Amino acid sequence: MRLQSFYHLEGRGLLEFIPSKFLKLDNVYPSMRTIKIFDTTLRDGEQMPGVSLPVNYKIQIAKQLDKLGVDVIEAGFPSASKGEFEAVKEIAGLGLNAKVCGLARVVKDDIDSAIRSDADMVHVFIPTSKIQVEHTIKKTPDEIVDMAVDAVEYVKSHGVECMFSAMDATRTDMDFLKRIYKAVEDAGVDIVNVPDTVGISTPFKFYEMIRELRENLSVPIDVHCHNDFGLATANTYSAVLAGANEVQVTVNGLGERAGNASLEEVVALLYAEGFKTNVKMEYLVETSRLVERLTGVKMPPNKPIVGENAFSHESGIHAHGVLKDARTFEPGIITPEMVGHRRRIVVGKHAGRHQIRKILEDAGYIVDDESLSLIVQKVKELGDKGKKITDLDLFAIAESVLGEIKEKVIDVEEVTVLTGNRITPTAVINAEIDGRKKVISAIGVGPVDATFKAVSELLGRKIKITEFRLDAITGGSDALANVYVTVEDEDGEIFTARSAGLDIVMASFDAVIKAVNYLMLKKRKRR
Ligand code: KIV
Ligand code: ZN
């Protein structure tokens, strides 16, 4: 019975689980407020170990964030280095729609740098928890309040917007927290930020905390949640329910230690729960991919909303349901198209007949019931051996069962790849494409990139390598390399293939050629 009523709820998510005594819903539903998005990818995100963005990368990301529609971009910590100062100044000069913010400690030099960087807003912060105060600034509570107030007044005296953060707020004595936020409010601060600096809070605790602060303050409240216990998105959302007006997030959840609340998760969740933001969700995946590429921090395939598998289905039961109506095994309220993603039905040992038939028929194969049974059996056998099954594997199995002759769109005669410290990596391909001989050369940032570009030239159409994985199967410099690629063409058609070999470049080339050949054949068969 209980389970049944659960299913019939109209999906208010987390809200359903908050004991009613904690909830003051009057200003939560039904008006469904607009929540401002403060993006700190270029500041907290860049503080992630191993991430360091040159100014031109920061500019590219800032432009993308602006296209995405975030309200504020925290572009950096201007006093931290010359490069940081330059980055904030350059971004502030781009004329973006988003406000540009610079971070500063509550000290004059930091604030002066932030003001000189022409940021629209200065975000000042000071530690307030006992543990941080004792081990860092070593000031009395009165001194801390005075420093905060002086900093806010100093920023405001320059006619610049000011945000104030009590760092480590979630481990700070609540009375002191209320006192310092009230003091900066009286000093003219524009917005206060409540950081869960070490990600220690939980949705109920954070809800209570923000509710209490909301009752005590008139200025807008912003929250900044870290993900140390994997609760950053949940905590951010419960703060919104408690009355927070703005949320700090980073693209892909980048940030110190386990990172910050991820922009894509928070924005999608707010949408799903009926709140408004100014974010154009169709650019979420595009933004995530850009940040992934420029920071070098690869997203796991199961990352919500933007991960490669966020809308992929392998199990037969799920795929069967999804082929009928995607809402059977997806949240439904968010479709892949809405966030700039795509749905994939993937082959694997859990795959069912319907799904394999659908994939094969989409590729132009005509499969009778008996052949299909054999193909499914072979796929499962491969999967049981621990093999990740690519599209190429499935089609090879289908062809062996159906007895089809493999045609080739591209028949490669010779490939030469040049690389070295004094030459630009270059690939030359001599091949027959649809029976016509062609010799193509292309350069790239490395030998593999040059070969991929040459293949694209050879085809005369743009192809993207959306996934490229290289594993050394055996040890040593003569290790056997296993290359796994996903190729996407101009129409968004994708194809996965694999190749193995002792030469990384040749194995990569071979995998791409196989993928491209099948992708072209698949299209032709369908036509
Ligand atoms: O995590 C934190 O407390 C911060 C502050 C500077 C807001 O990043
Ligand atoms: Zn932080």
Describe the structure.
- The protein contains 17 helices and 16 strands.
- Helices cover 39% and strands 19% of the residues.
- The strands form four sheets. The chain has an eight-stranded parallel β-barrel with strand order 1-2-3-4-5-6-7-8, surrounded by eight helices.
- It folds into three domains: 30-295, Alpha-Beta Barrel (TIM Barrel), CATH 3.20.20; 312-402, Recoverin, domain 1; 410-526, Double Stranded RNA Binding Domain.
- Helix 2 runs parallel beside helix 3, helix 8 (203-216) packs parallel to helix 9 (232-241) and helix 9 packs across helix 10.
- It binds 3-methyl-2-oxobutanoic acid and zinc ion (ZN).
Derived from helix and strand composition plus strand pairing, the structural class reads alpha/beta
Counted up, domains total 3
CATH homologous superfamily assignment of the largest domain: Aldolase class I
Output the CATH topology of the largest domain: TIM Barrel
Task: Report the CATH C-level class of the largest domain.
Answer: Alpha Beta
Mean pLDDT: 89
Q: Tell me the distance between the termini.
A: 51 Å
